[in-house]
Design a protein that fits this description.
Layout lengths: L1 E2 L2 E2 L1 E2 L9 E2 L2 E5 L8 E3 L4 E2 L22 E3 L11 E9 L4 E11 L2 E12 L1 H14 L8 E5 L2 H8 L8 H12 L4 E5 L7 H16 L5
Parallel strand pairs: 8-13, 9-12, 12-13
Antiparallel strand pairs: 1-2, 1-7, 3-5, 4-5, 5-6, 9-10, 10-11
Helix pairs in contact: 1-3
């Protein structure tokens, strides 16, 4: 495809349809690079015949990142893993913020709803992941973390440079490094996934109530 004046690769799902989130398309400038970008569909056009020097290939999101993927929670079938569904919410951005976490392990479910003060939505998304990781009791079992935040997914899995919130990002990276088997899964927000919707509800409840519930 062409994004503005540049040749790019557009991510598609298994049916060949463009991957979209919040009205944006996911693209790469080079297939071998880790960086991916969410862009306005109006700026993405098909290449004309003269510009296409190579055949167009379909790519899947995060194709070159073995520990990162984009998929609904239901795609994970590892019953031996701890599944951590996270979400952050901010009223005002920055404003009163909260996090929501749903942890599942072998049929057991734990929910966390926590008010984290006055901050941004990005910080809330990251803090939800950090808090979920800190709740882990064992480091040697598989862990799958779910987030609907493109920002959190980018700085933690896709090699994006964290220009802000560096200390928090570095802290999460260190926690991830202590685990033997961990995967960060990017899910589509407000797409009807039960656990992700529950995490969203817990985060919004924390914002409005201004307290913490476990």
């Amino acid at each position: 495809m062409r994004f503005k004046k540049n040749k790019v690769w557009m991510a598609t799902d298994s049916s060949g349809q463009p991957i979209q989130e919040k009205g944006k398309l996911l693209i790469k400038y080079q297939l071998e690079q880790n960086h991916q970008y969410w862009v306005n569909p109006a700026n993405v056009k098909p290449l004309d015949a003269k510009a296409a020097e190579q055949p167009i290939q379909k790519i899947s999101a995060a194709a070159d990142m073995p520990n990162s993927t984009i998929a609904p929670p239901e795609d994970s079938s590892d019953d031996n893993a701890v599944h951590i569904y996270t979400d952050g919410a901010s009223s005002g951005n920055p404003g009163p913020s909260g996090i929501g976490i749903v942890m599942e392990y072998r049929g057991q479910v734990r929910e966390i709803s926590k008010f984290i003060g006055h901050t941004t939505n990005n910080v809330a998304e990251l803090e939800a992941i950090r808090t979920g990781l800190l709740e882990l009791k064992k480091k040697n079992i598989p862990v799958v973390i779910y987030t609907d935040s493109s920002y959190a997914h980018g700085v933690l899995s896709l090699g994006w440079k964290a220009r802000k919130n560096r200390e928090l990002v570095d802290a999460i990276r260190k926690l991830l490094g202590t685990l033997k088997n961990v995967k960060l899964v990017k899910v589509r927000g407000h797409a009807g996934h039960r656990q992700n919707e529950a995490a969203d509800r817990l985060a919004r409840t924390a914002v409005t109530s201004g307290d913490t519930r476990r």
